Amino acid sequence: MGRRHFLAGLGLAATADLMTSMATANASPRQPTDRAADPDADAADPSGCDRTVVYGCLLHFLDDPGDPPAEQAWELFEDGALVIENGKVVWLGPVQRLSDQHTADAKVIDHRGQLVLPGFVDTHAHYSQVDVIASYGEQLPQWLDKYVYPAESRFDQPRHAELMASFFLDRMLAAGTTTASVFPTVHANSVDAFFAEAERRNLRVLCGKVLMDREPHAPSHLRDLSVAQAREQTLDLIARWHGRGRLGYSITPRFAPTSTEQLLQMVGQLRQERPDLWLQTHAAENRAEVDLVRTMFNARSYIDVYDRFGLLGPRSVFAHCVHIDDQDRTRLAATHSSIAHCPTSNLFLGSGLFQLAEARGARVQVGLGTDIGGGTSYSLLQTLNEAYKVQALQGKRLSAARGFYLATLGGARTLQLDQQIGNFQPGKEADFVVLDWAATPVLARRTEVATSFQERLFALMTLGDERAVAATYVMGKRHHSAPARS
């Protein structure tokens, strides 16, 4: 079966056929007879073969489908095949069109009855906040003082940073996420630890030393001693890690309240000197924070502060942007800046409701962020679940099509990595996640009674979490497999 119309779905007869296929695939849950269940499946082949064929229901996006979604924005191959060579996609399409040239000497990974998507992209998270997830009872300013800064102070210990980086990346992979833009702490060794662990897993990630120097908002023990020292440490880390394998460096001023004008000037200058770098920071997350920034910098808006110092532009990602206006959105779009939408964090901390439709209307690129540990789940499926609710509270909707676009190609575009990842176009890096339609009894039941593919996909977006991730692959190699269901 070839490319299908997404909105039309499969129809009742096709739905029944697919459910039969799913039942067959799950007869021995997560223990198929093919190599996908073999713990040594991804070991080097002694014959030297570097080709893999992945079978499954393949879905990827070619563009933003919008709401209501436009069907030309994606490709769906219900009985599809993905051919990978040397970690890169070389072909995808219906199984019927798979040639002998593609299958000759190829390793087979059989995920028929499961959904194969490009790896999820998390555009904003803090590996330094692993231990503060689900911390009770505060909004942003108090939450930082009470929970976050004490936790981050421990990252001056290299071993602690290594353990946290390893834990974070393993949880990320278990959630189906293969690329992330991540905050460490002010400590240079926290960057070293994160990049070293990411490199061991061959992950495409962005990270960079947190910069903050303004008292009293930056605690003394987490403050850069001088702008000159902050720049020197940053340049040293850039030289050590940027462009090494799949690693990229982000200049990382924490946010305006912890930054002096001199620090922001240095950041803007460095960004101008090195357009190959990324920039990540926070903007307009909390109303009290916004009011503080306007007063501190005598500015019209939070975004205006960053614009004043030259922080806007391609490869600049601003987390949250809950409390911005049309003028801000126009400026973000004009400078090709991006927004990381973090719905679970915004709801948990009571920060507000992000205006997704307005951002799209202004042509601002948006991706999804878990914002661990303000966010309460490593799963972008649960992040989508909350994103839907954020829109519903504003009388709007988020379709499954647009949701999964935001979690894949939309995230890649937000980080300006869409030439490397985000979909299955030939030449892209073969990072992908396999999702199980029957991962939980509730999801399995809802999937069974669904009458269209779109309906099933929305159920997965709403009811899914890490349990729905059957496997995660990085450059065609399996890095996570879910345990067998009892």
TrEMBL record:
Magnesium in keyword set: no
> Region (Disordered) spans which residues?
24-45
Q: Where in the numbering of this chain does the Amidohydrolase-related domain appear?
A: 115-477
| Pathway membership | Purine metabolism; guanine degradation; xanthine from guanine: step 1/1
Q: EC class of this enzyme?
A: hydrolase
Matching entries from PANTHER family are given as: GUANINE DEAMINASE
Its biological purpose is as follows: Catalyzes the hydrolytic deamination of guanine, producing xanthine and ammonia.
Q: What is this protein called?
A: Guanine deaminase
